[in-house]
Amino acid sequence: MSEALPASRSASVVAPCVDPCAGGSAAGEGTTSRAIGLVEAMRRAKTAKKIPQEILDAQDSLERRIRAHLAKGRVQVTLTDNRYTMISVRRIAQKGSDRRYEVRLHHMFVDADPVITRALARYVADNDGESSRILGDFIDDNSGHVRGRARRTPTTVIFTAGEYHDLRAIFDELNTRYFDNKIDASITWGQRTGRPRRRNSIKMGSYSVEDRLIRIHRSLDRAFVPRFFVAWIVFHEMLHQIHDIRVKNGRREFHSKEFLADEAQFAHYDEAKNWERRHLDAILTY
Fold this sequence. Notes:
Elements: H1 9-12, H2 24-45, H3 53-67, E1 74-80, E2 87-92, E3 100-106, H4 114-126, H5 129-141, H6 167-179, E4 186-189, E5 205-208, E6 213-216, H7 227-239, E7 246-248, E8 251-253, H8 257-263, H9 269-284
Parallel strand pairs: 1-3, 4-6
Antiparallel strand pairs: 2-3, 5-6, 7-8
Helix pairs in contact: 3-4, 4-5, 6-7
């Protein structure tokens, strides 16, 4: 059963129901009760051998509702209780068939109305800018659902799947190989820029201590940029979580001797630095 967008803004205030709504207060209580039940099910799932049925049902329902707004392609939804990454998309091209989308969504989206599920579909398939803003507002309005964050959530939607490089896959591989999966941070591509131009400098990566958020510049999501180079930049930013910023002679020291020694342990360290020197002009033109 496909969803239809409300005819007006006033109609969009009414929460969608699988069964006809008997009344506003009852629907609100049901939504709250369901959210609590999902959180409890996710906690059980961490130690259970099977995913609880209520989680599977919620994921299937959300998949159907997002798919109703997709012209083509398959979508697979995994619900999370992540504190930092509310939306994560992996786009997988398949030979001889439609593209497949692996989407990780915070459980706040379970009872989202058709406006939000349409925005999800457009963001998942096309990285649509307007949909990104709609989803950002939704996340801000529902930040009370985020475990341990009160009203504090990222103000932008997380973009992990690029046109050429998947930041989530790179982060997960590095976290396992070098950090024993102890780095607790989210990662995203930075915002898109305007017309291409030659820049004097580019901040290829950054790490926000307060938000535990790594941002990677979109200039690196291009065909000529090798995966090992993107991984080196991600690795560098991950190191900031385990190395404190020191104050030395009244100045902040972001890259201590210990930091630089750890960075040199990256398997493609020398190769990445040499590649950067040879291709710096191309990186700066974006």
